[in-house]
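INFO batch 0412 | record 1 of 1 | parsing
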Amino acid sequence: MGEVGKLFAALRQRAIAEMVIIGAMTRPDFADLRLDWGAVKRAAELAQLFRRGDNGLLVGLAAIFEREGIRIVGAHEAAPRLVAPVGPLGARVGSPEDEMDIALGARLLEVLSAFDAGQGAVVASGRVLAIEAAEGTDAMLLRVAEMRSQGRLRVAGPAGVLVKAPKRGQDLRLDMPAIGPSTIQNAAAAQLRGAAVAAGRVLVVDRVRCAREADAAGLFAIGFSHESLAQ
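INFO prediction complete | emitting tokens
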């Protein structure tokens, strides 16, 4: 993280003009960083960026790359087959009550966009059980599973839906939400009824395995659109 100059020199040496950014970013402790000259020149700008929320941080970092002539390409542009489609991923679909919970979760995430908070929530029978923050989706689902095991959520049998969607105005090149097999496994551990992701705006890593995991666990996994929720 502190070798910014070395990074840009390596990109120029290899004539790299485009870059895809994937994975999570851990905010560093600047006191522990050993800065090269490229980082020293940008230290004030970088320090300001790391005081922003996740989206603001990533947009600012992308601007630094683009000033160096590196075009940022979204993962969904490089691999469009990973983008969630509209409709079920596996054999199961949600009930009308599940669809109401999905609509509530989508509205909740839309409202939370102004606070640059997380990209996921768990809703059951019109009740918000959990909201994703800095811990990430999997940790949120583990929290729901723990609440159920401790009896803090008194519901019988599978209940609740994971809803995953980007924030309003989020730059999808930089931080497109994603789910994968571990998400489905953790949703099953939390005894949810299913998972719903914003079609066209969420990546599904290993879609075939996600569908297989959902079917085996008795969960539905679907891609929703605002048009489908309005019907």
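INFO post-check: The first helix runs from residue 4 to 13.
INFO record closed
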